[in-house]
Amino acid sequence: MGKEESGRELKLSHFTIERAPDAIFWIDSERTVYRANEAACRLIGCSQVEILGVEFHKLFDESEDSWSNIWLESKEKRGFSFETYMITKDRRRICVEITGSFIEFDGKEYIGSFVRDITQRKHSEEELRKSLTEVEQLKDRLQVEVSYLQQEIKLIHNFEEIISENVKFKEILEQVEEVASTDSTVFIFGETGTGKELIARAIHNISGRRSRPMIKVNCAALPENIIESELFGHEKGTFTGAFTRRIGRFELADGTTIFLDEISDLPVALQTKILRVLQEGEFERLGSAHTLKVNARVISATNRDLEKAIREGRFREDLYYRLNVFPINIPPLRERKDDIPILVAHFVNKYNAKIGRKIEGVSQEIMDRLQSYHWPGNVRELENVIERAVVISHGSQLELGKLPFRENMDSDASNITTLEEAERTHILKVLELTHWQVSGDEGAAEILDINPQTLFSRMRKLGIKRVK
């Protein structure tokens, strides 16, 4: 190869390096920039004069020691590759990928490095990661929602099951129509079995949120140790048995309606979090510091005397007023006995089809018996009685047989005590007998034959406090 040809190849090499799209730096043994191509100058935003002799680590978000280590590693392994941030002349931080190799030339040591701006790629990767996270979250939510729908389709709940000719109940249905088109919080009051859930579903089914299912939570049916996780969800590993992340009912109810049945049974400590969701529309999953926003319409219901619960410290007064924006009071069946004939006809037809009977009529004698009963279990109890009657009837007329209720009971059910009230009264009586000694010999726990900690837990739940 002649001298002239060698000169042309040297010029070609120089031209190629200078026109290369990637930034190329040569670093000498002093860790300073020995040479940089045009792309390197453009990347940093300075001239050749400004960049030559600069300590290489000052161009990056790296310490001098780390570059010394990179030099030694490169010398040992003859190369390196990693990602870091470069600081431009105008103080911007750009993400770069550096690939370098160790060079010995003319008795001196250098590192030849290629630096590529990957800021856009990293941004795209981050956007993709966020999108995948969102997709995964939507997938989790869809799985929970599908599971919830599978449970719901096993039930028969629709507006048509609200059957009434009673004047008071028709006024309630007018209230339902009035409030359904709004997002107002609704509080439904009524005894067990009066149809509180049917009213809640009616509100949801004619509201603007009807395209998605109403999410139901029975606060009385959930153990105290899992109800917070059920409502707000939890992160994986938050507690023993939390093997996966769980989406809570409030998160699932974003954009739809959540029905908090028997809300009076919520622990007082948890009532604060419910109040925050109502006021701020936000909460955190258990085990997470990340605040989630939710747009859920809240409908709640109770069969308890909440004003009494407030006086006894078992229910927050501020939560009561926040829930009680639009109250609906459902009358018990004993106050709308004119509805019993049409309800009986409805349930007879329902269980005729379900059981395979052909009952066509109900005698006046039976109807009188049904209307003379006070129905402490309300419509639910009536339905159960009619189902049983259909089962035992084999002709065309409904037969009641031996009714599973006492027909001679006082028609005023107001004196009937709930199991919880009876338990509270009994515990208070024993505590007073022991002068409020809970544990130890002849303590209340020993008399009641339960663990002292269990008794303390029951006292907290029932709102039993010693008045000094």
Topology:
Layout: H1 3-19, E1 23-28, E2 33-36, H2 38-44, H3 48-51, H4 64-77, E3 79-87, E4 93-105, E5 108-117, H5 119-152, H6 167-180, E6 186-189, H7 196-205, E7 215-218, H8 227-232, H9 249-252, E8 257-261, H10 268-280, E9 282-284, E10 291-293, E11 297-302, H11 306-311, H12 317-323, E12 326-329, H13 340-355, H14 364-372, H15 378-392, H16 419-433, H17 444-448, H18 452-462
Parallel strand pairs: 6-11, 6-12, 7-8, 8-11
Antiparallel strand pairs: 1-2, 1-5, 3-4, 4-5, 9-10
Helix pairs in contact: 6-7, 10-12, 13-15
Whole-number mean pLDDT: 83
SS elements, strand count: 12
Major beta sheet, strand line-up: 2-1-5-4-3
Query: Which value, in Å, is the CA radius of gyration?
Result: 38 Å
> Can you tell me the CATH topology of the largest domain?
Rossmann fold
What does this structure look like?
This protein is α/β, with parallel strands linked by helices. It has 4 domains: about 15-120, PAS domain (Beta-Lactamase), CATH 3.30.450.20; about 135-330, 3-Layer(aba) Sandwich (Rossmann fold), CATH 3.40.50.300; about 335-400, Helicase, Ruva Protein, domain 3, CATH 1.10.8; about 420-460, Arc Repressor Mutant, subunit A (Orthogonal Bundle). About 45% of the residues lie in helices and about 15% in strands. The protein contains 18 helices and 12 strands. It has helices at about 5-20, 40-45, 50, 65-75, 120-150, 165-180, 195-205, 225-230, 250, 270-280, 305-310, 315-325, 340-355, 365-370, 380-390, 420-435, 445-450, 450-460; strands at about 25-30, 35, 80-85, 95-105, 110-115, 185-190, 215-220, 255-260, 280-285, 290-295, 295-300, 325-330. Strands 2-1-5-4-3 form a 5-stranded antiparallel β-sheet, with helices on both faces. Strands 7-8-11-6-12 form a 5-stranded parallel β-sheet. Strand 4 and strand 5 form a beta hairpin. Helix 6 packs across helix 7 (about 195-205) and helix 10 crosses helix 12. It is elongated. It starts with a helix and ends in a 6-residue tail after the last helix.
